[in-house]
Each structure stands twice: as structure tokens, then as C-alpha cells.
Amino acid sequence: MTFDRSKMRNLEFYYSLILLLFIIHSSCSTSTDAPLDSYFIACGSSNNITHLHRTFVPDSQQPSVTFDSEHSDIINSSRTFSPIYQSARTFSTSASYNFDMNHKGWHFVRLYFYPLSKTLASASFSVVAGSYVLLDRFSFNTSKHNSTYLFKEFVIYVSTDILILTFVPFRDSDVAFANAIEVVSIPDKIFSFGHTLSFPKLKDTALETMYRLNMGGHSLVPSQNSTLFRVWEEDDKYLQPNPLASNISGNPFSIKSSSNDFVSSEVAPADVYATAKALKNILSKSNLTWVFPASPNFKYILRMHFCDIISKSRNSLFFNVYVNSEVVMKNLNLSAFTYDIGVPYVIDYVTNNTSEEDSDNLSVTVEAGGLEQGLNAILNGLEILKMSNDVRNLDGLSSVDDIFSKSDRNIPRVALIISSCGMAALLLFACVIYYFYGRIRAGKSNITLSNNEGRLRIFTFEEIQKATNNFDKSYHVGNGGFGKVFMGQLKDGTMIATKKANPQSNQGIAEFQNEIKFLSKLRHQNLVSLLGYCYEDNQMVLVYAYMVNGSLDDLLYGKNVVVPLSWRQRLEICIGAATGLHYLHTGTGGCQSIIHRDVKAANILLDENLVAKVSDFGISRSGPSSDKSHVTTVVKGSFGYLDPEYFRTQRLTEKSDVYSFGIVLLEVLCGRPALNRALPVEAKNLANWALRKVENDESSLEEIIDARLIGDAKRESVKKVWEVAKMCLEGKRIKRPTMGYVMSGLQDALHLHLHTEALASY
Ligand SMILES: *[C@@H]1O[C@H](CO)[C@@H](O)[C@H](O)[C@H]1NC(C)=O
Ligand SMILES: *[C@@H]1O[C@H](CO)[C@@H](O)[C@H](O)[C@H]1NC(C)=O
Ligand SMILES: *[C@@H]1O[C@H](CO)[C@@H](O)[C@H](O)[C@H]1NC(C)=O
Fold it and tell me: How is the chain split into domains, by residue range?
């Protein structure tokens, strides 16, 4: 069988996009919340075994684990180094352990193997968990693995009520075995990879922990109070020799917590953040590189843990991060994200192995940045997780079906698994019936909608439920003007974003209709495209093309910032959004002009190529007819972005959008939101703050510009954008430019940035 690379490439497309950053809330207290599922099974043992602060119970005595004992045997030996390996259960035909699951979500599945006899050492067997192959015809005698025992940790998303772990002997003469099994649920916040961007698919991926390192510190084994029982190793054996490398350690109790608690302290213990590898004081470029054996046929998730424990103040450490010599972060300034030193920060990255340079190694490099003020680099912790391939295998190329069909004897087992799926299907069917019955009783509402454009597709509610896993909360990606936004995937694979109106709200209904009214007429590459809608009984859902990169506000200052946008990317996004608005205002394409009325960073969405798409037409209005200069209307819009003249006079013109767009330009320049209530009064409102700071002295632009643009943005280009923004923010609308003018001003700024090498950058 050959490895299907074309399929891999498809996956590559998906995964190369995941690159999430988390600011972690870390505190030194160890959480003692018990996991919802925790099973510690000593296979074939007759008594409890204590191993690293947990108690393993004999498999024959664990009531919530059912286990198929036919053709099984027990083997014991006291001559092993650890009691956990002293007993084993062997299976001469495939057999399963079934674990009742309380938690739908990620679980650690840990397996312990030690061949207690020659037969076991030569046995070849596979292990299947749910629909994933964890071990594919593994044998101690033939494996490259050179230890006498085998401990494996997997991370699996379980969405069923039972996790079935099946041990499958390869040939008739083989046996399968296990010494101990551990299944522990993981709090959602630890593995929230799927939370951002487009990765419901990650839940269809099993992971295997390959490395978990505590840089610069001692290995950490599970302590009394740890609930997840993770082991952190020392890093030195993977570090490339470098005389400048040094171990740094601080006080774990001084690791601060971030106010931004997207991820909890359980992501990694404070001890991991309190130690690091860094460079000795240096005056030239140098780097720290760790190299790990890895398989070229698999992708890996790398979770890098950072915490600046070497700087005395903010903005004094800048460094570059590479994986396999590919840039992950350039000039990473941790304090720009954490707002302080000593605060943990995590970057998740998925390797993007190009098939030409298949390599048996994976490398991670941190390199001292190019700025004099902080010539150093740091890494506190690193986790490397292997991802299952297309056939859901972590170890080879067989699918679960291949493994079960290898031997005829195994068919009864297959039948058993299928029948348990059958039960689930029956249950689901019952739920669907119940649901529909409920819907029919709920009655019909009486709003009518004219679908004046045949090209909008009408979706059934069922279709949308399927696509969004019934509006599963892990598919929730944001909140639109009138409802929650969920991502989803249609049967044909198309990724969609759906916006569901609250049928109880009249406002919701009006905005739903407004959005259809405008978007069905408009088509422009810088406007979000409406694919269709669903309008059934009282369910109203709009369906859009999914924008993988989310909204501009998230990318500028969101909690899960993808690599900070470069100045060039920011300019290109602004030009795109300005072009979209220009199209609306000028009524190109035969339409009357349209005033968006809710221009803000959150309404500028970005596709996979970071092309800007203006969205949310819920409160848009047709512009004034040719004989009038304005429309008089109730003031609507978002605080922080509202045109003050419109606010005073209730007279709406296109220039109100121009004002709001000026605020967006400031957000792009400064990397902060239009309104930040957490800041002192004088800094709360971005426009007031920035205009006062810079006033007549453009050299003070440096003080307000986003720190992450330092070293990237050209001064002249920034100045140009500032000038355009200032014009947009003129108090009197007649002094504000048109969107057409804004567009060309931004194009000039891009030109200045790209084509004037000699200009200084910040
Ligand atoms: C750890 O567990 C022990 C015993 O269960 C308890 O006395 C101690 O307070 C715990 N420590 C922390 C930091 O939670
Ligand atoms: C870091 O500390 C470990 C012991 O904890 C030691 O083996 C290693 O050599 C040290 N590495 C450096 C670069 O000093
Ligand atoms: C790290 O330093 C080594 C030795 O100076 C160099 O060969 C290598 O290219 C550097 N790696 C990166 C990613 O800069």
C-alpha cells in the first residue's frame, strides 16, 4: 500500500492554518477538580496497585468498565521494576474494554505494556480506540523502540457514551495484551484547539504525546495533587550543543496570572513556566535548537510554552521562533500579549511538512531577535503531539476496518461494535422524532419573505443542524448583529458560517430581512457572500461562506491572536475593506447607494488569503435619493465608532461610514479596540486618546503605534495612514474624504511601505 499524498495535502491545507496563540491564566494553585472520567485499570491483577499517586484497580473489579473475558488469560511476575507492570491480561482473540463516559470531549488514554514472557515479546497486535488505530501490529521484538517496556499516551476526542478499547492479535498464533490502562478526561480549556478558526476536524484526529518537556528544569512527575498525571521531561538530551545555552529558574510562586483567562492554569504547571532555557549574555545572533526524531508521514501539533522570567521590564525581549526552519514568529515580544513579564503564554503550531524534504527530524528553534535592547531568546516548555493520518491511524496505514477484517475470527467483535453503534442511531432517531414533534406543535409564524433573487439557496433547518452539529457550542465562532454565529460544514464539504436570529426578537426579524434584502443584490469580492438562508416555522438562519481567518478585531487584539498581522497585511486588509465600502457608497452595479451604518473591525471578515470582506448588513440603509443630502433616521451603530455629527443631528450620510472607518484605521495602527473600558478615563476612547497624544507632533506616533509593528512598519507609510485616519475623523462631515479618496490614500501608504527601501522603519 502506498501513502496517499494527495489526501495528505488536503489535510495540509487545513492544518497549516492552525496557529493559535493563547495568553494563559496561570496561577500557582493546583486545581484539584476531579476529572469527570478517570479510570485506572490494572489488567489481570488481583489487587490494587499504587503508581505515581494513583490507584489502579483490577480490571475484574471495576464495575463501570465492562470487559470481554472470553479467551483471556492472566500472567504475573514480580520481577519487574515497577508494580504496574507485574501483571497483564492476554487475549487470544480480539477483545475490548468498554469505558462509560461522563464527559464528551478530549481524554487521555494511557497504555502500559511490558512483555512478561517470550510469547508476549514476540506477539504482534493492534490497539483500536473508538474509530482510531493507536497501535498497528506492534511487537516488542520487531519494534525499533529499544526499551523493555512501553508507555504510550494518546489524546482522543470522545463524543459517544462509551469508549471502546479493542486489543486485536495480528495472526491466529498471536496474542494481544496490556498491563494497565488509564482513561482520564481533560478539561475543555486545555485542548481548545478547535475553539478558534475552522477546526471541527481536529475532533476527528487522534493525537499521541511524543514529547513533553520542561525546559531548563527537572523532570516533573505526577504529584499528589495533579489530576491529569502528565509527566514533563528534561530537555537537555534534545538540545543541540551550544555553549551559550543556560538553565534559568525562577520562583514558581512568582508566575503571574493574566487577567485574560482564556485558558486555565491547568494548561501547564507553574513549575514549567518558572524554568527555561535561554542564552547567556550575548552580543551576536545565536539560537537554541532542539531536535526530535519524528516520522515524516505524520503531522505534529507543537505547543510551545513561554514565560518571560529573564527581563526586568516589558518590551525588552524580542526573539524569533522557528519550526523546521520555518518562521513561526518574527520578533516575538511576549509582553505585547501578556502586558507584563512573568506571565505565561502559549503558541500552538501545526507542522507543515513539505513532502519533498521528508525528514526524520522535527526541530524547534528560538533565536535572539535583531534588536539591541534584548538579545536573548527563551523557551519554557514544549509539547509535541503526533496527529492521526487520513485513515485515522497513529502508527501505520491500516484503517480500523482493515484491522478488524485481517482475521475472520474477529468478525464477531466487529458485529458487536456495530450493534452498539446501532443503538446509538436508534436513540438519535428517537430524539429526531421527538424534536420534530416538538417543532410541529410549536406552530408556524406568519412573517413572509420574498426571495427576489433566485440565486440564494434555501436551506432546510435540518441541513443546518447537521452542518453545525446542532449548533454545538464548540462551533460557536462569534456574535453578529442579531444572533450567534456558528460555523459548519455542508455535506459537500463547503465550510459555512450561519447566523441564527432570535425569533422572539422583532429587531432580529427586521435585521434578518434587511440583510437578505441587501446582500442578495450585492456581489463584490470585498463583501461577505450570502449563500442562502433557512426560514422554517420560526427558525431563521442566514448562511454565508465561512471566513477562515475570522474578523479583523480578533486578529488585531483578540484573545487567540494568530501571528500578529504585519503592516503590509494590515494595509491590504484596509484597502480591501475601503474598496468594499466604496462599492456600497457609489452604488456601482446599478444599485442605489447603501450606507453600511455599522462599520467596525468586528464586521470586517477575512478569508483564507486575508482578503477583507465587509459583513453585517443588519442595520444598513439605502443612501439618500439624488435630490437629498442625507437620510434622517434613528441613531444606530456601535459605541466607539459612531459619527458624532450623525449622533447629534440624526442625519445619516455615507460620511458616517467614513468616520467609523477612520476608527478602524486607528485600531489597525494601535492594535487596540475602539473602546477599552478597562483603561483609565483619558485612554478609554481610542480616537480621543490617539488624537490628543499625537496632536501636532507626528513624531509621537511612535508612542501609540502597536508594539508588534516595531521593526516592520515604515515610518512614512504609517504617517500616511495616520493622515488619512485623521481626515476621516474630522468632526464635520464635509471635511471628511470619500471612501474613494481613502482607498487611494491607503494604496499610497502601501506603496510607500513596499517600494521605498531607504525609509526608516519603526
Ligand atoms: C495536596 O493534597 C494534600 C492531600 O490531599 C492536601 O493536604 C494539600 O493541601 C494539597 N495541596 C494543594 C496545593 O492543593
Ligand atoms: C541544565 O540542568 C540540567 C540538570 O537539571 C543539566 O543536566 C544540564 O547540563 C543543564 N544544562 C545547561 C545548558 O546548563
Ligand atoms: C541556529 O544556529 C546554528 C549555528 O549557528 C545555525 O547553523 C542555524 O542555521 C541556526 N538556525 C536558525 C533557524 O537560525
Answer: 38-189, 207-387, 447-545, 552-761
Report the CATH number of the 447-545 domain: 3.30.200.20
pLDDT over 80 (residue 760):
no
Phi, psi dihedral angles at 727 (to 5 degrees) = -65, -40
pLDDT, tens digit, for every residue of 451-499? 444 568 889 999 999 999 898 888 888 776 667 888 888 888 888 999 8
Q: Report the nearest-CA residue for atom 7 of ligand 3.
A: 287
Can you give the pLDDT at residue 352?
A: 67
Q: Which CATH class is domain 207-387?
A: mainly beta
* Residues 305/273, Cβ–Cβ less than 8 Å: yes
Q: Residue 288 CA: which ligand is closest? A: 3
598 an active-site residue? yes
Residues with CB under 6 A from ligand 3: 287, 289, 322, 325, 365, 367
Fold of 552-761: Transferase(Phosphotransferase); domain 1 (1.10.510)
Q: How far does residue 287's CA lie from ligand 3's centre (Å)?
A: 6
Nearest CA to ligand 1 atom 10: 225
For ligand 2, the distance from its centroid to the CA atom of residue 264, given in whole angstroms, is 29
Measured CA to CA, the distance from residue 566 to residue 573 in angstroms comes to: 11
> Exactly one of 174, 553, 598, 643 is catalytic; which is it?
598
CA of 332 to the centre of ligand 3 (A): 18
Residue nearest to atom 9 of ligand 3 (CA): 325
Q: Which residues make beta-bridge pairs with 593? A: none
DSSP of 159-208: -SSEEEEEEEESSTT--EEESEEEEEE--TTTT-GGGSTT-GGGGG--EE
Of the candidates 636, 622, 375, 667, the one whose C-alpha atom is nearest the C-alpha of residue 521 is 622
Q: Which fold has domain 38-189?
A: Jelly Rolls (2.60.120)
Taking the CA of 368 as reference, the closest ligand is 3
Strand stretches in 492-603, DSSP E? 495-501, 530-536, 539-545, 594-595
Nearest to 367 by CA among 443, 303, 287, 434: 287
Section 100-123 average pLDDT: 91
Q: Is the pLDDT of residue 145 over 80?
A: no
Predicted confidence at residue 697, as pLDDT, reads 78
Q: 496-530 pLDDT, tens per residue?
A: 999 888 767 666 777 787 778 777 778 889 999 88
Same fold, 38-189 and 207-387: yes
Contact at 8 Å (CB) between 514 and 539? no
